[in-house]
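--- STAGE predict ---
source: upstream dedup step, 1 unique chain passed
mode: sequence only
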Amino acid sequence: MKNIYALFAPLVLFSFLISQPISAQEAGTMVTVAGGGEQEGEGIPSTDLALNLPLGASVDAQGNVYIADTFNHRVRRVDLASGEITTVAGTGDLGFSGDGGPAIEAQLNGPQSVAVDTQGNVYIADSGNRRIRRVAAGTGKITTFSGTAEFGFGGDGGPASEAVFGEIIALVVGPDGVLYISDGINAEGRGNNMVRAIDLSTNIVRTVAGNGDFNFSGDGGPATEAGMTVEGIAVDAEGAIYIADFNNYRIRKVASDTIRTIIGKGPLPFIGGGGFSGDGGDALAAQLNVPTGVAVDGSGIVYLSDTVNNRIRAVDPETNIIVTIAGTGAVGTRGDGGLAVEAQLTEPSRLAVDLNGNLIIVDTGNNRIRKLFDPQFRTAVLELVSPQLDFQDVSIDDPTVRDFFVENRGNKSLTIESVTSDNTDFVLIERYPLIIGPSQTDTIKVQFTPRLEGLAEGQLLIVSDDPKRPTLVVPVRGSGAAPDIGVNPDRLDFELTFVGKESLVQSIQVTNLNVGTLVLYYVVLSDTSQFTHNFSDTVRIRRGETQNINITFRPMLPDTQRATLTLFSNDPDESEFVVNLSGVARIAKPGGFVDVSDSLGTGDPGASFGAAWADYDGDGDPDLYVVRSLETNLLYRNDPDGFTPQGEIMGVADDGDGSGGAWADFDRDGDLDLYVTNFGHPNRFYRNDGSGFTPVGVELGLDDIGDGYGAAWADVNQDGYPDLYVANFGENRFYRNEDGRFSEVTEESGLSDNSSSIQPAWADFDADGDPDLFLANSGINRLFVNQGGEFRDATSEFLQEVGLGDPSFGAAWGDFDNDGALDLYVPYFGQENRLYKNQGDRLQDVGGLFGVAEPDTGRSRGAVWGDFDNDGDLDLYVTNSGQANLFFQNNGFRFTELADSFSVAVGEDSRGVGLADYNGDGGLDLFVAVQNGSDRLFRNQESNGNWLTIRPKGTDSSSDAICTRFEIVYDSGKRAVREITGGSSYLSQDALSATFGLGNASSIDTLTIRWPLGIVQKETNLAINRILDLTEQKPLEPFSIRLSATS
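--- STAGE serialize ---
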C-alpha cells in the first residue's frame, strides 16, 4: 500500500469528545459520528468505537454511513436511526479469504475506500489485496468484483474481473451507474496515477483520466493524456469527475473528457511543496497542501480536504471564491458541537455528502468520522490572537503605538464596527468600521501615552458583526516609566580655530540611564552664527543606549566665544539640560614670511657672516648682534617701532674680520656677555655692565688670534659657569670657566682638533645629562661624548656614514621626529647635506629618505630647526652660498621644500641664520646674514598653530640657561623636546628661549625642565599661546622626621 499510512499516522487524543444529538445541531457546526472511543464490538454506540486510521466513507440511500476502517481491516456501518455500529465486512484479521460466503467472515487487507450503489450493494477497495470486492445487498455475501491481485496495469476494454490495478485508493459510484476507481501509487511510489471506471451494467473497465505520469500536465486537453497523482475522487449530477491531485496541490475536473484545474495554483514557487493561502479569493490562486479528498453537493459546491493544512475548504461555483469551512489549521480534536471553523482536525482525508447535504469528513489522524451540518453555512468569527495587550514600560509623555492582532476565523467577511477604550491613556488611532476577510488577520492600533509613573490599566471594547460574539473585551495595561538623561561631557571646549574656519567636530553623548525611552524632542543653540549641531528631529533613546550630537565651532569673531546648547527631553526631573560651549578664535595669519628688513632697520648691505640673538638689555625681547667682515659689527636693540643700532653706543662695534658671535652670562651677574670671533684678528669678549660693554678678552685670556670661526657656550662640567669652545681654521680652543676666569684646557679635556673647524654645536644627544659636542669641519667632522667634564672622541662609533671628510660648514641639533632623541642636520659645501637620525647607538643618515639632502652639489652654510607653522614638529631652514636658500616643511612623514612659496628663498650669498620670535606673537622669525647683499629679517606669517614660548632664567645654573632641556607632553600623549643652544648653525646663535608649536592642542599636560646643573622641575596643566618666564628652583633640602609609637 502507498505512503498514505505515513501521512495519516494516528495521533494522541488531546480531549474527550462528547457527541451531540444530531437533531440539536445548528448550521455550520460539527460533531463526531463515529470513532474516538476505545471499544471494539457490534451494536455499540458509534462514538464508542475505536477506529484505526479510517481512510474512506460513503453514504447509502437511507443515510447510513459506511466506513473503511483501514487498519482494522473492516468495513463498518453507522445506522442513521440508532447511531450504533455494525460490521459490514472483514474479520479484523489481515488477509484474503471468504469469497462466496458472508462478508463478515471474510478477510480484508487494509481497505482504503467504500462505495454503495443505489441497490445497496457495497463496493470495497481491498487495497492490500489489489481487488475490488462487492457485498451483495440482501444476502451479505462477498465476492471479488474486479482485480486479479496482480500489481500493474491492465484489463481496459475487458471484464472487470480481469482488470489489473496498481493501488486502489478511492471508489465512488456515479449517478450514471458507473463505479469510478482512483488507481494511484503505493508506498514505494509505484502505481498507475489514473482514474478508471467500470460500467456496472456491463462490467467493462476503461480509463477516464491520467496517463500514468505523476508530473502535472494536460490541462485543457484529453483527460487520459494528463499527468497527475490521484487520491480522492467525486462525481457530480452531470457526471463530471473531480480528482484530488494531491502531489500537484490541485483539484481537477474532467468534463466531456477534457481536464482542467479548478482549485489551487500548484506547488510553491522555487522551493516547491504546499502551503496555505487564498481564503476569500479566487480558488485558482489558492495555495493547497496535499489535498486528498474531494466531494461535490447538489448545488455544485466543491469541498476538498486540504490535508496537511488540517482544513476542509469549499469553493462556490458561482463566484469561484474559496473559504475554509472546518478546521483552524491546528492539529487536534477540539470543537465538537461548536462551529466547524473553530474546530480542530488532524489530517482529514476523504469526504462524502449525505442525503441532507451535510458533509461527512474522514478525520483520519484523529481516527474519527465527523459530520459538518449545512456546509453551505457562512459566518464571521472574531478571534483574539492574544488575550490581552501589554505595553510594559513606556516613557512618560512618550506616545507608543502597539498593534493588537485580531483574526477572522470565519468564512465570511467580518466587520469590526467600533473599538473603544475606558482609559484616556489608551487611545485608538484608526477609524472604523474595519473589514477583515475570511481566514485573514488584521491589526487594531492602540496608542499608550502614560501621564504618571507606574501602572495604568484599562479595557478595549470591540464591537463586530460576529453573530456568536458581537462584543469582546480586551484587557490593556502598561507602566509609565521615567527615563533619566545623562549627558557626557556636560561642556565642550573647542581648540584654537581661525575666524571664518571650521573646527574639528566634537560630540556629546546623550544616554538614557533609566527605564523606558528617553525622547529628545529638540535642541536649542544660543549662538547659531558661530556654533552648529547635527540634530534634526526627535530621537528616541532606549535604556542604556546612546545618541551622539555633533557640534562644530565656526567663529566669526576673535578671542573666546561662548554659547549654550539646551536639550529638551521627557526626563521629568531634567526636561531642560544645558551644555556649555566655548571656543577660542584667532584671526589667521596670511601664511609664509614677509621681509621686514628695511621697514624695521635691519637690512644692512655690508658683508655679514654671523648673527646672534639675545636680550642683552633685559627688557623681555630679543636683540640682535650681526658680525661683519672688515666692517663694523652691528648691535640692534629691539624697540617697539623697529631695531635701533646700538653697537657704537654700547661699545661692541668691533671692526675686525668678523666671523661669529655668541652670548652667555659668563660671570653670573644676570646679564648677557658677548664673545666675537675674528679671522686673522684677535677675538673679542665683551662683559655686559648694564649700561654698556667692557672688553675683557685680553684680561681673561680669550683674545685668541687664530683664524676664528664659530664659537659655542656650554657648562660642560656642571659647575654653574658656562664654558666656551672656539672653532679655528687651525687649532681649536676650549676654555673652562672657573668662577668667571678662564683656562685653556683643550688637550686635557680631550677636545683637541686641527681639522679646520667651522662651527661647534653642543647638545646632550645621548640624554645622559651633560652636553656633548659636534664639530663641523672643513676636514673630518668630529663627535665628542662628554664623560663627566672629560671627552671621548666617538666619531667612528656614532658617525659611520661616508663623506665625513668633506667640508661641512654648520650644524643644527633638533628632534625632528619627536621621539625624544636629538637628531643632527649638517650642511655640506659641494655635497648633499646630511640628516642624521639619532638611533641611540648611532647617527644614521636619512636625508635622502626624508627629502632634505638638497642641494646635491650644494654650497650650504647654515641651518636652523624651528616649528615655523606651530603644528608640533620641527621644520628646517638652510642657507646657501650662490644659490637660493631652502625651506623644508615637516609634514610628519617627509619634508616638502617651500622656500619660494614662503618667500624666503634668498638668492644672494647667505651665511649665518638665527631664530627668534622678535615680536612675541608665537611665530619664530628668521634673520639671514648676507655677505654680498642686504641682510634679511623675515617675519613669520605661517605660525597659525597654538604655541608656548619659554624664557628660562637660571639661578644655581648661569642665568642664560644654556643647555637647559625642556620636554612637554600634550594632546593625549604627544611629546616634544627642545634645548637652549649657546651657538650653532653657521657662526650664529638662536635666542635663548624655547618655542613649542602645539597644533590644535588647548593646553600642555606636563612640562619637564632639566637645568644644566641637573636640577629637574615639572610644571603641569599649562595655559598656552603665551610667553612663560621660568626661573630655576632649587629642590627642597632633605629633612628627617622622628617617629614614635606607643602601644
